Amino acid sequence: MKRNNFFFLQFNHERYNTGSGNYPNDIAIMKLSQSADLTSDYVSTVPLPTVAGQNFLNTECYISGWGKTSATGTLADVLQHTPMNVMTNDNCKRSWGNSLIIQSHICLAVGTSSACNF
Fold first, then answer.
1. 89: Cβ–Cβ under 8 A, 6 or more apart, which residues?
2. How is residue 53 annotated by DSSP?
3. C-alpha–C-alpha distance, residues 24 and 22, integer Å
4. Where does the signal peptide begin and end (predicted)?
5. pLDDT recorded at residue 118
6. β 107-109/80-87 pair status
7. Spatial distance between the Cα atoms of 10 and 32, rounded to a whole number of angstroms
8. Of 19, 76, 107, 117, which one has the fewest beta carbons inside 10 Å?
């Protein structure tokens, strides 16, 4: 992971990558060492759900990360992002298989882009 002077601490979910499915609880919170400039075109906050079990079906969202940009590619050294649409977990299971998708997943897809390669 590429880090800059603002990065201070990272808190992974206490159950990251434990349990069934593919990458369960794959979420983290980062604490910055100083306030970020929210007037910048390159920095913003991420809104969190206000209600447990909120339905995000057909909502546009962005995914980001330093993962692979193709199935056989190398890891990105610059943070990548792409807009996606939320799909039903049933549709996701048809594409990825029942054993990889669990209830807590929010499935995303647009064309050939996905959270695995974008």
1. 101, 103, 105, 107
2. T
3. 6
4. none
5. 39
6. antiparallel
7. 9
8. 19
Cβ(27)–Cβ(20) below 8 Å: no
Token pair listed for 27: 């979420």
| Mean pLDDT confidence for 52-80 | 79
Q: What is the C-alpha separation between 64 and 92, in angstroms, rounded?
A: 19
Q: Judge contact between 15 and 23, C-beta under 8 A.
A: no
Name which of 58, 49, 47, 51 is nearest 83 in CA terms: 58
The letter for the amino acid at 105 is: H
CA dist 48 and 56 (Å) reads: 12
Instruction: Locate 36 and state its tokens.
Output: 């970020």
Complete edge-to-edge strand list for the sheet that includes strand 107-109 = 60-65, 80-87, 107-109
Which position has the token pair 């049933």? 90
CB 38 within 8 A of CB 44: yes
Whether the per-residue pLDDT at 41 is higher than 80: the answer is: yes
